[in-house]
Design goal:
Bound molecules: adenosine monophosphate
Strand order of the largest sheet: 1-2-3-5-4
Number of strands: 5
Number of helices: 3
Structural class: alpha+beta
Largest sheet: 5 strands, antiparallel
Length: 113
């Protein structure tokens, strides 16, 4: 099941996924298949398919996701060593789940592109 329901179920607490942080706008949880020592996903609670669906009305959601990711990086104490934020879009960008999500990666030296 690689559809948007995966993340919707996590947001609605219908799974055992460990939620790191949740408020009225976003939910943050550990990636099930971490690509770095710290790999956290940040998703909006309202459904947005991907970056192509960002517009003037919902731009605040994306800004807030970024803002909270930086806060989480500080809470996880990876802000000084450094981290990377990735948002994949569609097939060529490597987006597998059609629900906007931001990857926060760190806790170790990441490989360069
Ligand atoms: P993307 O390739 O950008 O669409 O990223 C999707 C990410 O979701 C991958 O890094 C997966 O490991 C992760 N993922 C898939 N299913 C789950 C799940 N149930 N809980 C947490 N992360 C998941």
């Amino acid at each position: 099941m690689m559809n948007k329901k995966i993340f919707q179920n996590i947001i609605n607490k219908k799974t055992h996924s460990k939620i790191i942080f949740q408020d009225e706008k976003i939910t943050a949880f550990h990636d099930i298949s971490p690509k770095a020592r710290i790999h956290i996903l940040i998703v909006p609670n309202i459904f947005i398919k991907n970056l192509n669906h960002i517009n003037k009305k919902n731009l605040n959601v994306l800004t807030y996701m970024l803002h909270m990711s930086i806060k989480i990086a500080k809470k996880e104490k990876i802000h000084k060593s450094g981290y990377r934020i990735i948002i994949n879009c569609n097939k060529n960008g490597g987006q597998k789940i059609p629900y906007l999500h931001l990857h926060l990666l760190g806790g170790e030296k990441l490989k360069n592109f």
